[in-house]
Amino acid sequence: MCKAIVWLSVLCLISCKIPSDPKTKGKEDTKQESTYNATQREFISLLATYDASIMNTQYRVREFPQQLVKFIDSSRVFVNWKGKIENLEVYDVNRNGRAYKSVSMTIGLREPQYKPYSTITFRYNNLFDLSKKNENRVLRQISKLVDVANVYFDGFIVTEKGRIPYYQCSSHSYDFTLLSITDYARTDTLSVALKEKIALNYQVCLQSQKQFRGKMSKSEFNKWMFSQTERASKLTTQLTEEEKQYQNDWFNAKLHEMLY
Which long-range contacts (CB under 8 A, 24 or more apart) does 55-64 make? Predict the structure, then answer.
């Protein structure tokens, strides 16, 4: 397993474009309103299909959760989605003399043009180790959201062993991993290199899951990982430091989700 961890460390270095200058956020907000995020619109359309199928129990219990997981897997990351902070709690935690910040947040999608879908929420909870300042990028972003309601965020819905619990589907309230959050819309998106690295690291997660569950031998896993090293290194050289940290957050959260 040690070798596996080394290869994972090599392959998972990456992240997302530095957000645009906040000074231009007024113009960006206007542009974002006129070209509403296509992926977010597709997500809401999927939920609308669920809501319209009130008499179709099989679709609601079996087909819709599968469609939603497929949507999550194909999207990899929800980028620059617009929402509203419904609840935000930040408080200090001390464990064995070590300082942490606990963050609990709920983000709602409450766009008037999408009524009656006014109860779509994402729940985010995390415990930040304050001794690891370089890993607390999202905490720094959250600390700037004083008296802020409308936000733009990146992240993904958390699955449980490859599926979405029925109670989350029926309530449209989902556990969420947050990767970025600001009070302004960005004009940029993920770079090509970052998208390719995320796609590669998703394959790393899948192969790790196979090896973890005994469906792939350790030698087969190490051989596959070694075969991807050159490509991973090439992509990493094209990334900014900010991108590498963004991807590290994505990779660590996704790998933990898929293994445990």
Answer: 60/169, 60/170, 61/166, 64/169
